[in-house]
């Protein structure tokens, strides 16, 4: 039997990462068709104290790699956040999808009892069970940033809807 934590994480994140990739493609096409500087969308934010689109994509990708790695008991790779274009973001998302695909469901067996330590050795250190980490921290964070990408683009006139957000399932 496949671990419920695998089922609730890897395939879900892959679906949303691929949908985010498709939404970004529509945004790039929108910018081209409307003669909009791509940076206007890439640096757009919903409010001045929120991160811009580029950073939202980076954080969503970071959560996908962190969640899958931690639940599988693997080291979380470090990726520099140097993306500045739609092409860079597409490459980052492809890298995130490939990273999640590198894990086998068996690596998540017995992961429910695994302890996840966030920010180890700092005053903000937090110890969580794997299921608490996934369901109450990791996935909500991941979805927040994916949703914010969608919201920024929709707010800026990109013609996307719920089907675009959901992707193929």
Walk me through what this model shows.
A two-stranded antiparallel sheet has the order 1-2. The mean pLDDT is 96. The protein has 169 residues and is mainly alpha-helical. It is globular. It has a single domain (4-106, 115-166), classed as dinb family like domain (Four Helix Bundle (Hemerythrin (Met), subunit A), Up-down Bundle), CATH 1.20.120. The chain contains 7 helices and 2 strands, in the order αααααββαα. Helix 2 (10-33) runs antiparallel to helix 5 (86-101), helix 2 runs parallel beside helix 6 (130-155) and helix 4 (53-72) runs antiparallel to helix 6 (130-155).
Topology:
Blueprint: H1 4-7, H2 10-33, H3 38-42, H4 53-72, H5 86-101, E1 115-118, E2 126-129, H6 130-155, H7 162-166
Antiparallel strand pairs: 1-2
Helix pairs in contact: 2-4, 2-5, 2-6, 4-5, 4-6
Provide tags for this entry.
169 residues, mainly alpha, Four Helix Bundle (Hemerythrin (Met), subunit A), two-stranded antiparallel sheet, 5% strand
């Amino acid at each position: 039997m496949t671990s419920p934590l695998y089922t609730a994480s890897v395939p879900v994140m892959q679906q949303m990462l691929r949908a985010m990739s498709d939404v970004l493609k529509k945004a790039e096409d929108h910018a081209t068709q409307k003669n909009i500087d791509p940076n206007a969308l890439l640096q757009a934010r919903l409010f001045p104290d929120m991160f811009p689109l580029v950073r939202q994509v980076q954080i969503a990708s970071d959560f996908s790699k962190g969640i899958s790695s931690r639940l599988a008991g693997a080291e979380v790779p470090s990726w520099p956040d140097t993306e500045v274009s739609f092409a860079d973001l597409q490459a980052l998302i492809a890298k995130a999808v490939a990273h999640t695909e590198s894990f086998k469901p068996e690596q998540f067996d017995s992961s429910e009892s695994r302890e996840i330590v966030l920010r180890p050795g700092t005053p903000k250190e937090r110890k969580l069970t794997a299921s608490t980490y996934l369901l109450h921290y990791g996935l909500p964070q991941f979805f927040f940033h994916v949703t914010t990408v969608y919201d920024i683009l929709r707010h800026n006139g990109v013609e996307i809807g719920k089907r675009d957000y959901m992707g193929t399932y």
